[in-house]
Specification:
Blueprint (H helix, E strand, L loop, with lengths): L1 H4 L4 E4 L4 H9 L4 E4 L4 H17 L4 E4 L6 E4 L4 H4 L13 H20 L13 H11 L11 H16 L11 H13 L10 H17 L25 H4 L2 H13 L9 H6 L3 H5 L5 H16 L2 H4 L6 H15 L6 H18 L7 H20 L7 H24 L15 H21 L6 H57 L4 H9 L17 H10 L23
Parallel strand pairs: 1-2
Antiparallel strand pairs: 3-4
Helix pairs in contact: 6-7, 7-8, 7-9, 7-11, 9-11, 9-18, 11-16, 14-16, 16-18, 17-18, 17-20, 18-20, 20-21
Organism: Umbelopsis vinacea
Keywords: Hydrolase, Metal-binding
Protein name: Phosphodiesterase
C-alpha cells in the first residue's frame, strides 16, 4: 500500500477512470488530480494534504490555555480517551501518557499491516427455516463449513453465542444481537479468505467442534433438541468433574478463543516467519509468533467493540479471567509445543489417578485444572477434522496440503530449506495423514479421553479414519499387484498357445510318418490319437494349471476360460 512507504501521496494522472481513482484513494493516496493542472487547483492542493495529516495517525501538539503547556493528542485514540477506565486518563502531564499512546498506535499499525483491509459485505437475513437447518448442523458431528456460504457461516457463529449469552449466569453481559453481529463481522474480515486452510471457514469449524465437544460431555445442551449424544463410557473417579469446574463465563471465553484463535493468519507457519526475520518474529522473540499475534489482534477487535467494558472494565475480575482464559487457550494451539502440552495432559491424568477427585473448594487447583482442560479441548478442536467423518477429513486434508505446498514453493523460491511435508509431491496425502494421526493426533486424543468423560467417541472415529487412510495408501500397491497378475496371466496364455502349436506340429509330423498298422496300434495303445487341441467352449481348465490360474486371477479374472475367444491352454489328455 502506498501509505506504508510514503506518508502523503497525491496522484496526478490523465486517466479519468473512476475505478482507478478509488483504487488509489483506497491504497492510501491523499488525493487524485487530473492533468493538465489548473492554477486554481494548484493553490488548494495543500488543503487536502493538511486534512490528511490532521485525520491521519500523526501525533500533533495542542496548546493548553490554562497552563501554557502542550499536550500530545492523537485523533486515532479519541475514542479510547473517552473511556473512564483507561489508566492514562489521569496522566495528562505524565511522561507515560505518550508511551501508552505510542503503544496503541503500534498495535494499530500491526493490525493494519497483517489483517485484511476491511471490505463492505452485503449480508442477507437468514430465513427461519434455514436457521433450523443450521442449528441441526451445529448440533451434529457431521458439520462441514464447505457446504455453507459466508452468510451461513456468520449466522452459525451468532447462533452459538446467542445460546451461550442467554444463560442466566451471563445476564450481566449486555451484548445486543446487533453488537454481536458487528463483532462477528469484524472477526470474519480479519481472516484471509485467500488462505486455502487458515481462513474463516477453519475458524468456524474449530468453533463448532468446541461447541460439539461441550455438548457431548454434557456442559451445554445442543441447539437442535433431537440431537443425540455419542455413546461413551461413563465417567470414573480418575476423570475431571467437568460440569463442576466449567462455569458459563468459561464457556463464553473458550468459544470466543475458538473463533478468534487464527485471526490474521498469513498462511505460513512460525518457522517461515522466523527464517525470513519478519517484524512479528522479532517482536515476539521467535516464540509462538503467530499465536501471540492472533491473541493481540483478537483482543484489539474485542476492545474495539467494547467487550472489555461489557465485562466490567479491564481491571474487573470477570474481564481478567476472560482474558487469561483466551490468552492461555490460543497460545496452546502452537503446534511447535504440541508434545509439551501432551506431556502436561499426561501429568494431569496421572495426578487425577493418584490424588483422586480435585477439591472443588480449592479455587487455585480448580483454575489450574480448568486451564489445562481448555487447552486440551482447543487443541483437539484445532485438529478435530481427523475425528470428523472421513469424507470431511479428506476435504480438509486436501486444502491443508495445498497450503503447505504453497509455503514450500515460496521457501524454494527464497532459497530457504523446505520441509518434506511442504515439498510439493514429496509425500503423498495418505502418508502425511497417517503420520499425523499416528504421531500427533491419536496420542493427544487418547490422553484427553482419559481426562474428560464422554470423549471416547473421538478416539473411535480417529481409529476408523486411520484405517481408511491406510487402505487408500495400499490401493496403489493393489493396482500394481493387479497389473502384475495380468502380465503373468497373459504370459501363461501365450506360453499355452505356443505349446498348442508345438503339439499340433508334433501330431501332424507323427501322423505323416504312420506307415504301418503296428505303428498305429502303438499309437492307439498310448493314446496318442487323442492328443489334439480342444476347441470345445464348455471345457474348463484342469490339473495344476487350474490352481495357478485361480491364484493369479484371485482378485479379478481377466480371462474367461469358458469362452472361445482364447483357446484352452490344456490338451484333452493329462500328461
Amino acid at each position: 500500500m502506498l501509505s506504508h512507504f510514503f506518508p502523503f501521496v497525491e496522484v496526478c494522472s490523465t486517466n479519468d477512470s473512476a475505478k482507478l481513482m478509488l483504487q488509489c484513494i483506497n491504497e492510501g493516496a491523499a488525493d487524485y488530480i487530473l492533468k493538465p493542472l489548473r492554477k486554481d487547483v494548484l493553490k488548494t492542493m495543500f488543503l487536502n494534504l493538511h486534512r490528511y495529516q490532521v485525520d491521519g495517525c500523526d501525533t500533533h501538539a495542542v496548546s493548553d490555555s490554562s497552563s501554557g503547556s502542550q499536550t500530545v493528542h492523537d485523533p486515532m485514540n479519541d475514542n479510547l480517551d473517552m473511556s473512564p477506565d483507561l489508566l492514562w486518563n489521569g496522566l495528562q502531564q505524565h511522561r507515560l501518557r505518550e508511551i501508552f499512546i505510542k503503544d496503541s498506535r503500534f498495535t494499530h499499525m500491526f493490525m493494519t499491516y497483517y489483517t485484511p483491509r476491511s471490505v463492505h459485505l452485503a449480508v442477507s437475513k437468514i430465513a427461519s427455516g434455514r436457521e433450523e437447518i443450521l442449528k441441526a448442523m451445529l448440533s451434529s458431528g457431521d458439520f462441514s463449513p464447505f457446504e455453507l456460504d459466508v452468510n451461513d457461516l456468520i449466522e452459525c457463529v451468532c447462533l452459538i453465542f446467542e445460546q451461550v449469552l442467554a444463560l442466566p449466569e451471563l445476564s450481566s453481559y449486555k451484548i445486543t444481537k446487533e453488537n454481536l453481529y458487528e463483532l462477528i463481522l469484524d472477526i470474519y474480515k480479519s481472516y484471509h479468505d485467500t488462505n486455502p486452510y487458515h481462513n474463516f471457514s477453519h475458524a468456524v469449524d474449530v468453533l463448532q467442534t468446541t461447541y460439539y465437544y461441550l455438548c457431548q460431555i454434557g456442559v451445554l445442551e445442543p441447539l437442535y433438541p433431537s440431537a443425540s449424544r455419542a455413546r461413551s463410557r461413563p465417567a470414573c473417579v480418575s476423570q475431571l468433574p467437568v460440569r463442576d469446574i466449567i462455569r458459563p463465563c468459561d464457556i463464553f471465553a473458550l468459544l470466543m478463543a475458538s473463533i478468534g484463535h487464527d485471526v490474521g493468519h498469513p498462511g505460513v507457519n512460525n518457522m517461515f516467519l522466523i527464517n525470513i526475520g519478519t517484524p512479528l518474529a522479532l517482536l515476539y522473540n521467535d516464540r509462538s509468533v503467530l499465536e501471540s499475534f492472533h491473541t493481540m489482534a483478537f483482543f484489539h477487535i474485542l476492545k474495539k467493540h467494547g467487550v472489555d467494558q461489557i465485562l466490567g472494565g479491564p481491571r474487573s475480575t470477570a474481564y481478567t479471567d476472560f482474558r487469561k482464559c483466551i490468552v492461555n487457550v490460543i497460545l496452546a494451539t502452537d503446534m511447535g509445543l504440541h508434545n509439551d502440552y501432551v506431556a502436561k495432559f499426561r501429568d494431569q491424568a496421572d495426578r487425577l489417578k493418584q490424588d483422586g477427585p480435585i477439591d472443588l473448594s480449592d479455587e487455585k487447583a480448580c483454575d489450574q485444572e480448568r486451564m489445562l482442560l481448555f487447552s486440551a479441548i482447543i487443541k483437539c478442536a484445532d485438529i478435530g477434522n481427523v475425528s470428523r467423518p472421513f469424507k470431511h477429513g479428506l476435504r480438509w486434508a486436501e486444502v491443508l496440503v495445498d497450503e503447505f505446498s504453497s509455503q514450500g514453493d515460496l521457501e524454494r523460491e527464497l532459497g530457504l530449506p523446505v520441509m518434506p511435508i511442504n515439498d510439493r509431491g514429496k509425500l503423498s496425502q495418505e502418508e502425511v495423514q497417517i503420520g499425523f494421526i499416528k504421531h500427533v493426533a491419536l496420542p493427544l486424543f487418547e490422553v484427553v479421553n482419559s481426562i474428560i468423560p464422554g470423549f471416547s467417541f473421538t478416539v473411535d472415529s480417529i481409529k476408523e479414519n486411520l484405517q481408511q487412510w491406510e487402505q487408500r495408501k495400499s490401493q496403489p500397491v493393489m493396482e500394481n499387484a493387479r497389473t502384475s497378475m495380468q502380465t503373468i496371466h497373459t504370459s501363461m496364455v501365450d506360453e499355452a498357445k505356443s505349446c498348442h502349436a508345438q503339439a499340433a506340429e508334433v501330431i501332424n509330423s507323427m501322423e505323416s510318418r504312420r506307415s504301418s498298422s503296428a505303428a498305429i496300434a502303438m499309437t492307439s495303445q498310448y493314446g496318442i490319437q487323442s492328443f489334439h487341441i480342444q476347441d470345445d467352449p464348455v471345457l474348463k481348465p484342469k490339473s495344476s494349471a487350474r490352481s495357478l490360474t485361480d491364484m493369479f486371477s484371485k482378485h479379478k479374472r481377466e480371462v474367461d476360460w469358458q469362452t472361445t475367444e482364447s483357446p484352452s491352454p490344456l490338451c484333452a489328455c493329462c500328461l
